[in-house]
């Protein structure tokens, strides 16, 4: 059984009497201990998907239809009290700005102890010992001293380590990390990513990494989902996706990496911008920016095509596969004819 199953998830925002679709028919699975990444430009729907999994959407956002199951439990239909039993204990979330998570008027220790005691019935002393142990496990020096400090007294990297420690308090099955290194410098980013990897490996936790940085994704994720305008447009094992991207959007993201340009050259970029929720194009939403778009792309939405170990939503790939299959059929017919004639 899959640990997490998201099936045909649709999320909308109801604004001034208008329904705006943010996620459209999103489906994927996550196994226990597996690490996957969700990538795409800003506005693709990555963070909305992360929030939807634990139903942290604020009004006017809501889950319109579809299913989010943690093993056999349907999360999308749970009330607030039921979800509180899941959040933190089974699924924990790391946000890109730790100050969104940490309360600036409470000490680090007070917040960690509160998180533990809200889910378990243990003494303050035992909760304090657990908190200090977790702070030590994320390589925070002098955890006893940090326990009594306030968030503003810590650096950005140290605050993010505190958040990771808070995630570990209840040993969840899944960590959702939403751009966890965005506000950090490159050196600290590498340390935090390695820490996340170690934490997931040592505790057999599954990870959903939300990122726009394919360089980071290549180091962390075993499988990657590419999102565009609220849809998943490609899904593949990470190395396969990086070495042989199928969707033109994925190709554009990879070509835009700095290492894909020679020194002194302008960086490659995808022309145009991600469409707004109220201005999503007809057909394939990527067609206004796609160099291979046809009239069919402008009027019809492509289905997912399974190509070996990858899946992609693109008419270009569909046509190429049909052509390859047609050629194989032709060769089979020619071989059969030749074989039959040889028997005569």
Describe the fold and architecture:
The protein is α/β, with parallel strands linked by helices and 344 residues long. The protein has two domains: 2-229, P-loop containing nucleotide triphosphate hydrolases (Rossmann fold), CATH 3.40.50; 243-266 and 281-337, no CATH class. The chain has twelve helices and twelve strands. The protein has helices spanning 46-53, 80-86, 108-117, 124-137, 143-147, 156-168, 186-203, 214-220, 238-243, 248-255, 295-299, 315-343, and strands at 4-15, 18-30, 35-39, 61-70, 73-74, 91-94, 174-178, 206-211, 223-228, 231-237, 304-307, 310-313. The chain has an eight-stranded mixed β-sheet with strand order 6-7-8-3-9-10-12-11, sandwiched between helices. Strands 2-1-4-5 form a four-stranded antiparallel β-sheet, covered by helices on one side. A hairpin with a 2-residue loop joins β1 and β2 (18-30). The longest helix is centred in the C-terminal third of the chain and has 29 residues, at 315-343. The model has no long low-confidence stretch (mean pLDDT 89). Its EC number is 7.4.2.9. One of its GO terms (molecular function) is ATP binding.
How are the SSEs ordered, and which strands pair?
Layout: E1 4-15, E2 18-30, E3 35-39, H1 46-53, E4 61-70, E5 73-74, H2 80-86, E6 91-94, H3 108-117, H4 124-137, H5 143-147, H6 156-168, E7 174-178, H7 186-203, E8 206-211, H8 214-220, E9 223-228, E10 231-237, H9 238-243, H10 248-255, H11 295-299, E11 304-307, E12 310-313, H12 315-343
Parallel strand pairs: 3-8, 3-9, 6-7, 7-8
Antiparallel strand pairs: 1-2, 1-4, 4-5, 9-10, 10-12, 11-12
């Amino acid at each position: 059984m899959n640990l997490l199953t998201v099936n045909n998830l649709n999320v909308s925002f109801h604004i001034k009497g208008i329904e705006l679709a943010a996620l459209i028919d999103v489906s994927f699975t996550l196994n226990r201990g597996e690490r996957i990444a969700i990538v795409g430009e800003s506005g693709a729907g990555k963070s909305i998907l992360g929030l939807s999994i634990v139903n942290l959407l604020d009004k006017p956002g809501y889950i319109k239809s579809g299913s989010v199951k943690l093993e056999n439990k349907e999360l999308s239909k749970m009330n607030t009290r039921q979800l509180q039993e899941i959040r933190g204990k089974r699924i924990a979330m790391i946000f890109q700005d730790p100050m969104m998570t940490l309360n600036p008027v409470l000490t680090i220790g007070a917040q960690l102890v509160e998180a533990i005691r809200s889910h378990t019935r243990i003494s303050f002393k035992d909760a304090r010992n657990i908190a200090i142990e977790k702070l030590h496990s994320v390589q925070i020096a002098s955890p006893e001293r940090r326990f009594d400090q306030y968030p503003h007294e810590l650096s950005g990297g140290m605050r993010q380590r505190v958040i990771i420690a808070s995630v570990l308090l209840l040993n969840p099955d899944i960590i959702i990390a939403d751009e966890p290194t965005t506000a950090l410098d490159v050196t600290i980013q590498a340390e935090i990513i390695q820490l996340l990897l170690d934490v997931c490996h040592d505790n057999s936790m599954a990870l959903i990494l939300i990122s726009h940085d394919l360089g980071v994704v290549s180091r962390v994720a075993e499988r990657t989902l590419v999102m565009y305008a609220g849809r998943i447009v490609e899904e593949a094992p990470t190395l396969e996706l990086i070495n042989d991207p199928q969707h033109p959007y994925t190709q554009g993201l990879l070509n835009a990496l700095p290492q894909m340009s020679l020194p002194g050259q302008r960086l490659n970029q995808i022309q145009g911008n991600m469409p707004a929720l109220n201005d999503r194009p007809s057909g394939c939403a990527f067609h206004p920016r796609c160099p291979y778009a046809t009239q069919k792309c402008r009027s019809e939405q492509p289905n997912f095509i399974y190509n070996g170990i990858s899946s992609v939503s693109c008419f270009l790939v569909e046509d190429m596969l049909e052509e390859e299959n047609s050629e194989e059929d032709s060769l089979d017919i020619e071989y059969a004819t030749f074989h039959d004639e040889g028997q005569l």
